[in-house]
Specification:
Chain lengths: 349, 277
């Protein structure tokens, strides 16, 4: 494993506090008075990020959510502007401050990737407007799910930075670490009880324990060369038959950011809206151009585009791999296509 | 209000109007577009614009020419938006934003003999460069324009092909059609074979080609056969684009986005990308 073992004693902000487990609901409700707070709540046998503080119970023992928290920053459907006979009215509204509570390290890393994708060369004002008004209360993972492989990619199970507050379940309470000025203010406002530095020893134990629980891995060593030289590997022919091209893997991916733009006319036929919605490179029409030519007509070309974009093309574009190992694409695929398995098979394992 | 918004938000177009429509072929029209403040922006040859009819949609088009007060976009009727444009009349309100893309690498072309190879509507982006070179004639060597279309009626920019460009000093124009009609006396046959027959020497030359994907594919083979090196061949790519600013993902090719890094690539650059185009 090429990912170095983390030393949890490296800290930028010295304040350490403890939050009792039965105090979590009160803490969230307190925050909800000043912020829109989204956190993991149960939905059937799964979990979703939903508003908390109004009867919804925060479930911090969740494994993963159906959709990643990207939906709070890059909405599945969004109005870009409205138009009418006199002109255009932009739809960037004043964004209330929001907190994403209980977000796992993989999803925090994914947001950092989206931050780059949506700010490089041109800034996307809709995303950035929400992002600038978002605080992150992250939760280190002590129980990785069957489909998780963040450890291989260095994006989990514990977080080093990118949070305002960071929680770790150390048994009787959550250890709370501060990662920013805004995080410091949150802690001061609710008067948490201070923790002794010995709590970091507990944290290290939880970390070591979590590290041993991973069942999947995606070896990144030599990945570039491997993928570059296997554009014609027989596995793509096989995946062409298996994949249904439904696009679910891209919808649940925390780093997928593609969108389609659609104009919608109001019933008056005099005004309308330009909207955008999540798009997917797995869909047939995605790479079709004028006169019907399609750059990726066959499903193998589309599966390959998804996997290559994540594991090969993101790095020169955004300086990091495009996969954070959250495992959602594996969990959601009805044909059980598994990105870690695809890579192992190309490696000949 | 609209103007201030347009500067701040790259996805909001400026409103403009179609001020002139030129019928090029039965399914290609050139639209002259301006805004209240004059020309929407000043593109380099080969750059692109996002053009929309609000309520129908928006798409990326090459800018084939420009005047002091307007932009010209030659557009083939192929889908919903382009059909709406073809039905539009002078005075139609449109949304426009840009310029996008890299444009042709002028610094690489200066002092070189230039071979332009176009097919069908693919002449539109190349035309912006041909006209630029004709206007800055002293900066470039010999110009040779080879162009083909399906039939004589499908030839775009006939006035340029048969009147304006043949009069440009030190410039040769050869035109073919896949199949002629009763009035056609010129050559017949596909562009790649036509290029091979004309046999241009690669010495000191840069070839610039654009056309339907299948034509580009075979023209590239023909040029290689004639001895052109990968860094002597330039082409422009077409992908569908929804944003123009490298976010929507549609024009992703390997680690590049055609809207930001293209649409103009040398063959040497294309060979670094996955073989999908």
């Amino acid at each position: 494993m090429s990912v170095p073992v983390m030393k949890v004693t490296e800290m930028k902000w010295p304040a350490l506090s403890l939050l009792d487990k039965d105090g979590i609901a009160e803490f969230a409700e307190n925050l909800a008075e000043r912020y829109l707070v989204f956190g993991p709540v149960a939905k059937g046998s799964e979990y979703v990020f939903a508003p908390v503080g109004k009867g919804e119970v925060l479930e911090l023992n969740y494994h993963t959510t159906i959709l990643p928290p990207k939906k709070l920053l890059h909405q599945p459907f969004e109005v870009l502007f409205s138009f009418h006979e006199d002109g255009i009215q932009e739809n960037i509204v004043e964004q209330p401050k929001q907190i994403i509570f209980g977000i796992h390290p993989c999803d925090v890393h994914a947001i950092q990737i989206l931050d780059k994708a949506y700010s490089v060369e041109y800034e996307d004002p809709y995303y950035m407007n929400k992002r600038k008004n978002t605080l992150i209360i992250a939760l280190n993972c002590s129980e990785p799910a069957e489909t998780c492989f963040c450890q291989s990619l260095g994006t989990g199970p514990f977080l080093k930075d990118g949070y305002d507050l960071l929680l770790t379940d150390i048994g009787e309470a959550y250890l709370v670490e501060v990662g920013s000025e805004a995080g410091m203010e949150l802690v001061e406002a609710v008067n948490l009880r201070p923790a002794a530095r010995v709590a970091l020893v507990e944290k290290q134990k939880v970390y070591e324990n979590a590290r041993r629980k991973f069942r999947k891995r995606l070896l990144t060593q030599g990945l570039h060369e491997l993928l570059e030289s296997n554009f014609r590997h027989p596995i793509w022919e096989k995946l062409k038959e298996e994949c249904l091209a439904c696009g679910s893997c891209t919808m649940v991916c925390p780093t997928c950011f593609c969108y389609n733009v659609v104009d919608k006319l109001d019933l008056s036929l005099k005004s309308g809206k330009r909207t955008r919605e999540w798009d997917s490179c797995m869909l047939l029409e995605y790479a079709q151009v004028a006169l019907g030519h399609n750059f990726r007509k066959d499903r193998d070309a589309r599966v390959k585009q998804r996997i290559y974009h994540k594991l090969l093309y993101y790095e020169p574009q955004f300086g990091t791999l495009g996969c954070v190992g959250c495992g959602r694409c594996i969990k959601t695929c009805v044909k059980k296509i598994d990105i870690t398995d695809v890579v192992s098979r190309i490696r000949g394992e | 209000m609209v103007e201030a918004v347009a500067r701040a938000n790259p996805l909001v177009p400026e409103l403009g109007k179609i001020i002139k429509i030129v019928d090029e072929t039965p399914d290609v029209k050139t639209f002259h577009i301006t805004t209240e403040k004059g020309k929407p922006f000043t593109p380099l040859p080969g750059q692109l614009a996002m053009l929309s009819i609000l309520d129908v949609g928006e798409a990326m088009f090459s800018i084939t020419s420009q005047g002091p007060e307007h932009l010209e976009l030659a557009i083939k009727k192929v889908g919903m938006l382009t059909e709406a444009l073809h039905e539009a009349e002078v005075g139609q309100t449109v949304g426009i934003r840009g310029p996008y893309g890299n444009g042709f690498p002028l610094e690489m072309l200066v002092g070189k003999d230039l071979l332009f190879i176009g097919g069908g509507i693919g002449l539109a982006p190349v035309r912006s460069l041909i006209n630029y070179c004709a206007e800055h004639r002293e900066q470039f060597g010999h110009m040779w324009i080879i162009y083909g279309a399906r039939s004589p009626a499908d030839l775009c920019f006939k006035e340029d092909l048969f009147q304006n460009w043949p009069r440009v000093p030190n410039c040769r124009v050869d035109v073919t059609v896949d199949k002629g009609d009763e009035n056609w006396t010129g050559p017949e046959g596909f562009v790649p074979a036509f290029v091979e027959k004309l046999n241009p020497s690669p010495k000191g030359k840069i070839a610039v080609t654009c056309g339907p994907p299948i034509m580009i594919k075979f023209v590239l083979q023909s040029l290689e056969k004639l001895g052109f090196q990968d860094d002597q061949i330039i082409t422009t790519l077409e992908m569908r684009m929804k944003c123009g600013i490298g976010k929507c993902g549609r024009c992703n090719l390997g680690s590049r986005y055609v809207c930001l890094d293209g649409p103009v690539f040398t063959l040497a650059q294309l060979k670094q990308l996955p073989n999908e185009y």
